[in-house]
């Protein structure tokens, strides 16, 4: 079957590249992926694969092989794009101003569609059932995965395991990476409003300077990580925005801060939330102001099942060659695939899409992100292989 999958992946390469270009040129933001959803439905219908609609724009297909109840595997791809204006000069450039597939979800969706076509054509040659999950809203809280799970995507039939890939510009095309255990961080959003008596900038002694309070708070919050957390426990606390004041001679009465908190330990994550809230309120109060703070709970940590990741890595070595499979580095980015990993054994792996020789090196979430499209053939084949054997 390995050689057959490779043969079919090669045969359908150009078709899949066209699928990717169509999706890339027509990106849609989280939870409004209506045309993308219709396109996926059209392809599944064309190939005779049954599906249902979940969470408004999600599409969940089902392919049954021999002895369908013997093993049930889920394959997941996210379908939404980002609010970024594309700057690439390519024929398949985004047609939707301010929206771009800058995180590779067009590639993820294409790989799952291509794998679905292969799995459906070969269903008399492998055992079990493969559930295809085309998921909306990965880029925006609370995450499309949470909606799909609430609507029963992990039931009827219930997958015993789930796989998903993500493009990785650091990896060269033709390569894959896997990691067991913690692989990506949780992500929470911090919103702080500091209020105090404003006034004339020439008379700061008659005010409680909100700009100065905010400045001290930003520095002080870093001590929560450096002095309360083990240096062996990856954590990031970053304030990304300070908004306050609109003139050189006025101390504002209000300053707003925003930021993110990332962690790889759920117990520490919530302990840190309490420390952030307490330190913010007490420090601001001590300096003469008041603070309102909200921490918007985001995605939990992505934890890959150790045994599943090990077996998937072995399958990848069989498929791509041991020299083309490596260990994924820890990353402080976040993914709502984490919700699946809390429910069933999960494996989130990386697909190499970079090519230094072609100057394809730019990372995700940038207006010039792009891929070496040769990666699609590899991504399709690996996902089909895991669907059959994983």
Tell me about this structure.
The chain has helices at residues 2-11, 13-25, 34-46, 105-121, 144-150, 210-228, 266-286, 306-320, 338-341, 375-389, and strands at 51-54, 58-64, 72-78, 129-135, 161-172, 176-178, 181-184, 186-195, 199-200, 235-243, 250-251, 254-263, 290-296, 302-304, 325-327, 346-354. By secondary structure, it is of the alpha/beta class. The two termini are 13 Å apart. The model has no long low-confidence stretch (mean pLDDT 97).
Write the layout of secondary structure elements.
Blueprint: H1 2-11, H2 13-25, H3 34-46, E1 51-54, E2 58-64, E3 72-78, H4 105-121, E4 129-135, H5 144-150, E5 161-172, E6 176-178, E7 181-184, E8 186-195, E9 199-200, H6 210-228, E10 235-243, E11 250-251, E12 254-263, H7 266-286, E13 290-296, E14 302-304, H8 306-320, E15 325-327, H9 338-341, E16 346-354, H10 375-389
Parallel strand pairs: 3-4, 3-5, 5-16, 6-15
Antiparallel strand pairs: 1-2, 2-4, 6-16, 7-14, 8-12, 8-13, 9-11, 10-12
Task: Record keyword descriptors for this entry.
390 residues, eight-stranded mixed sheet, Alpha-Beta Plaits, 10 helices, four-stranded antiparallel sheet, 16 strands, elongated, 2 domains, Aminopeptidase, alpha/beta
CATH topology of the largest domain: Aminopeptidase
The CATH architecture of the largest domain is: 3-Layer(aba) Sandwich
Report Rg. 24 Å
DSSP E strands, number: 16
The major beta sheet can be summarized as: 8 strands, mixed
Domain module count: 2
Q: How far is it from the N-terminal to the C-terminal residue, by CA? A: 13 Å
What is the N-to-C succession of helices and strands? HHHEEEHEHEEEEEHEEEHEEHEHEH
Low-confidence stretches: none
Highest-level CATH class of the largest domain: Alpha Beta
The amount of beta strand, in percent, is: 25-35%
Shape annotation: elongated
| Count of discrete alpha- or pi-helical segments spanning 4 or more residues | 10
**Mean pLDDT metric:** 97
Strand order in the largest sheet? 1-2-4-3-5-16-6-15
Q: Please estimate the helix content.
A: 25-40%
Structural class comes to: alpha/beta
């Amino acid at each position: 079957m390995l050689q057959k999958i490779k043969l079919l992946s090669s045969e359908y390469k150009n078709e899949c590249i066209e699928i990717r270009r169509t999706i890339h040129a027509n990106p849609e933001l989280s939870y409004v992926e209506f045309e993308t959803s219709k396109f996926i439905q059209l392809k599944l219908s064309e190939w005779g694969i049954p599906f249902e609609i979940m969470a408004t724009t999600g599409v969940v297909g089902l392919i049954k092989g021999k002895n369908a109840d013997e093993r049930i595997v889920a394959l997941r791809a996210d379908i939404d794009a980002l609010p970024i204006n594309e700057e690439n000069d390519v024929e398949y450039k985004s047609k939707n101003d301010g929206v771009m597939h800058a995180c590779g979800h067009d590639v993820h969706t294409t790989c799952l569609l291509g794998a679905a076509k292969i799995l459906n054509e070969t269903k008399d040659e492998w055992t079990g059932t493969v559930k295809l999950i085309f998921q909306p809203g990965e880029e925006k809280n609370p995450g499309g995965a949470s909606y799909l799970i609430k609507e029963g995507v992990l039931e009827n039939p219930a997958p015993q395991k789930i796989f998903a890939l993500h493009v990785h510009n650091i990896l060269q095309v033709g390569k894959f990476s896997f990691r067991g255990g913690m692989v990506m961080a949780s992500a929470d959003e911090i919103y702080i409003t500091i209020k105090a008596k404003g006034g004339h900038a020439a008379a700061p002694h008659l005010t409680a300077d909100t700009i100065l309070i905010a400045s001290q708070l930003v520095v002080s919050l870093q001590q929560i990580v450096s002095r309360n957390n083990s240096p062996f426990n990856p954590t990031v606390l970053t304030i990304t925005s300070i908004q306050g004041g609109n003139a050189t001679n006025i101390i504002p009465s209000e300053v707003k801060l925003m930021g993110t908190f990332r962690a790889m330990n759920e117990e520490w994550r919530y302990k840190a939330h309490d420390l952030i809230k307490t330190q913010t309120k007490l420090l601001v109060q001590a300096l003469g102001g008041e603070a309102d703070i909200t921490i918007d709970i985001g995605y939990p940590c992505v934890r890959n099942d150790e045994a599943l990741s090990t077996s998937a890595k072995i399958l990848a070595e069989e498929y791509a060659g041991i020299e083309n499979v490596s260990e994924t580095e820890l990353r402080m980015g976040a993914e709502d695939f984490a919700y699946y990993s809390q429910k069933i054994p999960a494996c989130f792996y990386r697909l190499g899409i970079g090519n230094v020789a072609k100057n394809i090196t730019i990372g995700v979430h940038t207006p010039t992100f792009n891929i070496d499209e040769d990666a699609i053939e590899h991504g399709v084949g690996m996902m089909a292989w895991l669907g059959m054997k994983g």
